[in-house]
Amino acid sequence: MDIAEEKILTPPEATPIASNDRALTPHEIVRELDKYIIGQHNAKRSVAIALRNRWRRRQVGGALRDEIMPNNIILIGPTGVGKTEIARRLAKLTGAPFIKVEATKYTEVGYVGRDVESMVRDLADQAVSIVRAEMLKLVEAKAREIAEERILDVLVPPIQEQKKSSDQPFNFMFPTSGAVNGIEPIPEQIVEEAPTDQQLKLAATHQRARTRFRKKLREGELENREIELEITEAPPIASMQIMGPMGGAGFGMDEIAQNLQDALNNMMPKKNKVRRITISEARTIFIQEESSKLIDQEAVVREAIARCEHSGIIFIDEIDKVAGKGKEGSPDVSREGVQRDLLPIVEGSNVATRYGIVKTDHVLFIASGAFHLTKPSDLIPELQGRFPIRVELESLTQEDFIKILTQPENALLKQYVALLGTEGVTVAFAEDAIAAIARIAFEVNESVENIGARRLHTILTTLLDHILFDVPDVITEQSITITAELVEQKLASVARDRDLSRYIL
Known about the structure:
Layout: H1 26-34, H2 41-59, H3 64-67, E1 73-76, H4 83-94, E2 98-102, H5 118-138, H6 140-155, H7 197-218, E3 226-233, H8 253-267, E4 271-278, H9 279-294, H10 297-311, E5 313-317, H11 335-347, E6 350-353, E7 356-359, E8 364-369, H12 381-385, E9 389-392, H13 398-406, H14 412-421, E10 426-429, H15 431-447, H16 454-463, H17 465-470, E11 479-482, H18 484-497
Parallel strand pairs: 1-8, 1-9, 2-5, 5-8, 10-11
Antiparallel strand pairs: 3-4, 6-7
Helix pairs in contact: 1-2, 2-4, 5-10, 6-9, 13-15, 15-16, 15-18
């Protein structure tokens, strides 16, 4: 089989469901979450148990496996305490398909807005992207080899083989056996002639040239050299966005619009255009083309749907905004309708996507909301029953702010140190300065509005505003230390006036 035609096949029986799902124990999951999220131990325990139960369900044999339903969770707490981050990190631990949606973006069927089934279609798109990226990585080495040969074909074109032909052009007029009018026919098969010395010398010279250019390619000497390449351009319709009526409300109109766009893209003729590009750019194009040829798209879709159904996580934020009953004629009239539309998706239904039917029976749903003006009991009883696990997250303390600033692997102070490090400036934060930042952030949250850890972004932006602006034009020091005195000086007016409105988006 030619290497360009070889496929990386993944038959259904060869790929386990959610093959990349790591069998993490609940304690391991909590330890991983602790690397990025401070506090909220109860919430971490709940999501760790829910994730482990999905792995346990897949180990159960027989028909009982399909009867075990996921324990959907509602996270209750103010903004900025880590609700979304917990769900996002949970998905990253397993590589599971994950999407975050806002409950306020969906409306009851018949109103302007997206229908709730679109969240499942978005999850399917995410799953296909994940699986395709994994398979592309598996064939990257082979695709790179083929791309190298294609580049060499441009630099050193292959020798054109001369077509062998008979000395008697009317050979086809004679039968394959027997003589006609005393003339013996020429056999139909063409006898290959032995290559001449000149042809052998030309082939050897050609091979030496390819070897020399291959060595230069691998050593990176030709990356900036330009070559002419014929590029297939997508039709203009590919860049157009086709919108369904009423913004895609109800009846799967956004899915219909997407299918219509795909059909038009396939119908439009593609144009070839000769461009001059560098070898580095050509290699990227060739690798993408060859990788797409090497993977089996049907296998990608099969695996993606399996991961959607058995490992998918949908995080529904601001579910408290659709709780309660709106008065007739008010803007909130469709809130209960959204809940009723969500109900069949959460309890399990078949949703048509562009890749096929996706069953939501075993998709894990994690909802969250502050529930300042409402409470979880304001949700319709049927929906409450589909979220049996409720966890209340705690407000962050001043000590939590100190840990958030320093302990996580993506801590805010580490981020600013890395940013200024790109300018050759080393920034250090004294311990008393960190304590002062945490104290001011906590006090502002208490007196203005509690936005949780997001307040630290505001405080640090105010504190480092002059440094971020003046480096490297005005500030030329190679080392800067942030002290408690500097913090008090820069944030005194902010802490006194509580005027942070220009930093709040």
